[in-house]
Amino acid sequence: xxxxxxxxxxxxxxxxxxxxxxxxxxxxxxxxxxxxxxxxxxxxxxxxxxxxxxxxxxxxxxxxxxxxxxxxxxxxxxxxxxxxxxxxxxxxxxxxxxxxxxxxxxxxxxxxxxxxxxxxxxxxxxxxxxxxxxxxxxxxxxxxxxxxxxxxxxxxxxxxxxxxxxxxxxxxxxxxxxxxxxxxxxxxxxxxxxxxxxxxxxxxxxxxxxxxxxxxxxxxxxxxxxxxxxxxxxxxxxxxxxxxxxxxxxxxxxxxxxxxxxxxxxxxxxxxxxxxxxxxxxxxxxxxxxxxxxxxxxxxxxxxxxxxxxxxxxxxxxxxxxxxxxxxxxxxxxxxxxxxxxxxxxxxxxxxxxxxxxxxxxxxxxxxxxxxxxxxxxxxxxxxxxxxxxxxxxxxxxxxxxxxxxxxxxxxxxxxxxxxxxxxxxxxxxxxxxxxxxxxxxxxxxxxxxxxxxxxxxxxxxxxxxxxxxxxxxxxxxxxxxxxxxxxxxxxxxxxxxxxxxxxxxxxxxxxxxxxxxxxxxxxxxxxxxxxxxxxxxxxxxxxxxxxxxxxxxxxxxxxxxxxxxxxxxxxxxxxxxxxxxxxxxxxxxxxxxxxxxxxxxxxxxxxxxxxx
Length: 613
Hints:
By secondary structure, the protein is α/β, with parallel strands linked by helices. It has helices at residues 6-11, 18-49, 55-104, 113-155, 157-205, 207-212, 216-265, 270-287, 289-349, 351-356, 405-413, 435-441, 456-461, 469-478, 482-487, 505-519, 535-548, 584-588, 593-612, and strands at 365-372, 382-389, 394-398, 420-425, 428-429, 442-445, 523-527, 553-557, 569-574, 577-582. Helix 4 (113-155) packs across helix 9. The chain is elongated.
């Protein structure tokens, strides 16, 4: 955020759409000018018609009234289209950047999903209101005020001065007072709305936990207190707006009286006095739109400040991402050139060796003394863990619940920062790798992978937006999803519902696995990829997923030990430490946790197969 002017940070994103916004402002000004001209022309026509003049004396005015009435409606409709088109483009960009910032930031204990939702919805709507309800109508009102004073000056300079004074109060003084009175209260509303939204999310998603531990009543009381405080502040804002609007009506009446008296003293005729009076009333009412704009602006500043903070984070992340992508591109080009050189050298002596060279090198990821504590003073979730993941290595991580398996994956993906030790990728600290590059290095299927309320295709291409139909088919086949997709009437366009509610749990898991395989990071992490599948299907899906991983490094977390025969190494975690390691044959022949679990799981699955047959 730039100083105390969050608007600057927000409006910097509107520069690519400046032409559209200026066009919307000009159309809004033309609409208000047409309304003012319509009012003045209609008054002139009514007063003149009262004297029963010849029809040809008022024909032009009659046509003018019709033309202005029609043009006002057309201009208003066009202005709405242009304004909303420009604004929605800006808001789309803002929302994307905020989502990027929220996704890239490291989670803290204070982060709550409801507050994040408030930032994505309510606070971004503040950007929309800033453009549509503050800038565009404010610029239009100011433009029409200048035109009104200029028009009055052609009739009576003295009346124009009175009108200018009234417009200065209505369009300058009152907006300043409205903003001052509103700002202090409004600055408390945006964060309070975020807290209230977070309370709602906690009450809904944590209802079972609250009920189990008897915390529902306390949570409701806290939420109710915030709701009452929010309602009190909003009532205060409404009362302030009512008072300022009342003063605005008084200013409009005094301005009309001053213009009328001044015009009469200046020797203006009866018809023109009426035109000036009604025109002044219309002009002041249009200028009072600046009061509403100022009040709206003051109410939006809290949300705009929160948006500006996140936009600054997003800008820093984007800069780092561009630098990281540039470095990665240069590195890839260098590796390709070296590979081509090696390939050319081998080709003369060994054509088969040249054909086998792929020109790509996977990174080596190393965990060195990594320690993670979720709370100070408690036992570590990971305790000085050392692990090396060279290119192509396939490692399975097993152990009892709470051993630290998911924490290990969180550390690898950068979602959980270590309290001690470090994680490096080819010697570079993972924390220094930009988020836009990190997900291509380490990623995959984590616990409770989210499925969006969209089509199968839309959910899959989140992993790789440039994926072709063949890529989708290959990833879906590896996850055991392709046959199901092919049997659906809508195929890839099948809607899966909110959180995958329209498909089974097994299909949700396959869909999330296919998305992870399609993304294709260099280090593929898989957290319980076959959860919810029957043993036979789990064996098939795991084998095909590992085959689809090709030469990538794979870190598999699982409770099921069947199918781990193909892994290069198996790690047994307990209390955050590696207590056993080796391949499947070694661990099944050695007393310990792995051997005991293998015997029990094999007996249980044999009993399941016997019962199924």
